[in-house]
Amino acid sequence: MLAATTMATTHPSSCPSSQPSAPEPRLTLEGRLEDLAEVWPWIEALARHYSIPARTEYAIHLCLEEALSNVVRHGYTEQANQSIVIECASSGAKEMVFTIEDQAPPFDPLAYRHAGDGPALASIAELEPGGQGIRLMRKFADRVSWERLPNGNRLTLAFSIAS
Question: What is the tally of structural domains in the chain?
Answer without folding.
Answer: 1
